[in-house]
Design goal:
This protein has 232 residues and is of the alpha/beta class. The chain has helices at residues 56-69, 81-95, 99-117, 209-220, 227-231; strands spanning 9-12, 31-35, 51-52, 75-79, 123-128, 130-136, 142-148, 166-173, 180-184, 205-206.
């Protein structure tokens, strides 16, 4: 399969499950980390294109478009979508009233998701915390779904993942020194994990965004070198 079009990647998991650590093997010279979490990266090494951001509008209106236009940037990381939602909602609460707060909030989130989907010449990696909510299944039973955390708003909940062809959930096993961090793109009936069938993903893979982008690049026929390929 080769369409030569980049597809964004969504990584979902709770705090401490290895989302930020999964960025370690990305190429610092070509990776723009838009750090709206404003926290240190949990590994050694410098990413010169990292930008600390403290406002949702700064991310959506300035730094993200700047990274998209930068020919040196091959991967854009949003760290994180959840924090963007938090800051965007605070902005809406300051500038709108009543129901208009939630209308502006939902519109801003969908607009940002659309801008991510519109990037066709580089990878966009979006990190997000998770949340649970209940839905009514076809048989009338009440079941839980685990999705990207968007704070609140029925108009948005569960509608983030359809914007991504590949959604990886973090999986943590063991404890202490035997603790291991992985990704899965297979849903257990609760999560919204997924990947194109042609990617032929194992049930569990290392929590390595660079390696996962390499798999996506192979599928779509894209020019992307993983850490091992860059070293050769």
């Amino acid at each position: 399969m080769s369409v030569n079009t980049y597809s964004p990647l969504l990584v979902i998991g709770p705090s401490g499950s290895g989302k930020s650590t999964s960025l370690e093997n990305l190429d610092p010279a070509t990776t723009a980390i838009l750090n709206i979490e404003r926290k240190p990266l949990p590994f050694m090494g410098d990413f010169p294109l990292e930008v600390q951001i403290n406002e949702a509008a700064q991310l959506k209106g300035i730094q993200f478009p700047k990274a998209v236009k930068d020919p040196a940037v091959k991967v854009i990381v949003i760290e994180s979508f959840t924090e963007f939602c938090i800051l965007h909602k605070k902005f809406c609460e300051k500038t709108k009233q009543g129901y208009d707060i939630f209308k502006a909030y939902a519109a801003g989130v969908f607009e940002f998701l659309q801008s991510i989907k519109n990037v066709k010449d580089k990878f966009v990696v979006v990190l997000s915390q998770d949340e649970y909510y209940d839905i009514i299944a076809a048989d009338g039973a009440l079941v839980s779904q685990r999705v990207a955390a968007i704070l609140e708003g029925k108009a948005i909940r569960g509608k983030v993942e359809p914007n991504f062809a590949t959604v990886a959930f973090t999986v943590v096993t063991g404890a202490g020194k035997t603790r291991k961090h992985n990704f899965t793109t297979y849903s257990d009936g609760i999560t919204t994990a997924k990947a194109p069938k042609a990617m032929d993903m194992p049930e569990l893979v290392d929590n390595d965004v660079d390696a996962l982008l390499g798999r996506m690049a192979t599928l779509w026929g894209l020019d992307y070198k993983t850490r091992g390929q860059r070293a050769s």
